[in-house]
Amino acid sequence: MSRMAQIIVLARYEDEVMEPLTRYDETRTWRGRFEQIPDWFVGGWYIEFYREGQRRGVLKDLESLPWNNPECVQVMLHDEEDDCFGLWMFRDGALVEVGVPGTERFHDAPPSWRTSPHPGVLFRTDLGRTDLEHSPEHAQDPRLSW
User: Fold this and answer.
1) How would you class 5 by CB atoms within 10 Å of its CB: exposed for 0-12, middle for 13-18, buried for 19 or more?
2) What pTM did the predictor assign?
C-alpha cells in the first residue's frame, strides 16, 4: 500500500554509529538507507518511505545501535496523515514516543481489517478539531508499524 513517511534522526557526534544504516542492506526488514543531512554541526540523518511495508523494523534497528549517548538521540517520525512530526527518544533502552504539547496520537480503527500495523495519526489538538474519536485501548493495534 502506498503510504509516505519520513524519519529524521538527530544524534550529536554519532556518525560512526549511524554509518551501517547509511548503506543498503537487503537483509533488513525495511528498505532504503539513511542520508546524512549536509552541513550540520551535529549529526542528522533522514529517510523517506513510499510504501507502508518498507519501513517496518526501522525503530528496532535504531534501538540496536551502540549509541555513545542514547539520552541525546531524537527520532522524529512523520506518517502521511500526521499533522506534524512525532518525537521518539530512548527510555529504559527502548525508543518510545514522547508526548509533544498540543498533540495527541489517535487510533481510530481496530487492527482486524488492517493487514499492516497502523501507527495511528498524530493530530494537533490545539486547532479546535472536534471530529476525533479514539478506539478503546483494547481495540488499538499493538503492532509497531515502524
Assistant:
1) buried
2) 0.83
Distance CA 145, CA 82 (A): 14
Count of other CB atoms within 10 angstroms of residue 54: 17
Give every CB contact of residue 75 below 8 A, 6+ residues apart in sequence: 7, 8, 9, 10, 59, 62, 87, 88, 89, 95
Q: What is the largest CA-CA distance in the chain?
A: 46
C-alpha cell at 90: 530512548
Q: Which residue type does 116 have?
A: S
| pLDDT tens by residue, 11-70 | 999 999 999 999 999 999 888 999 999 988 789 999 998 866 677 889 999 999 999 999
Q: For 97-122, what is the mean pLDDT? A: 71
**Greater model confidence, 129 or 80:** 80
CB 68 within 8 A of CB 13: yes
Residue with cell 504539547: 101
Euclidean distance between CA atoms 43 and 75, whole angstroms: 12
The DSSP 8-state label assigned to residue 20 in this structure reads G
